[in-house]
Amino acid sequence: MKLRSTPGWLTLGPDPRVFFPRTVARLLSNATGGADVLEILLHAHVKFIKGGGLMVFGQESPPVHNAPLVPQTWWCVPGTMDDLTVAE
Hints:
The chain is mainly beta and 88 residues long. Helices cover 6% and strands 49% of the residues.
């Protein structure tokens, strides 16, 4: 299991890249969009909110077409952030 702290702006909503509705979580480099800091989390949903953070569960897109989806969990802790904090 790989644990690391990655600052960014969390978004959860429809995937703009596909025709059919699919909820994705994205951790972006800044509040106005920017690049994805982590691989997009497909079929994402908030599992629970506890202890000042929230757990987002979903699946990473496989690196090879038709490979199985890889389960992924993000533990997100809100903090004071702005574009300068993310750039550090």
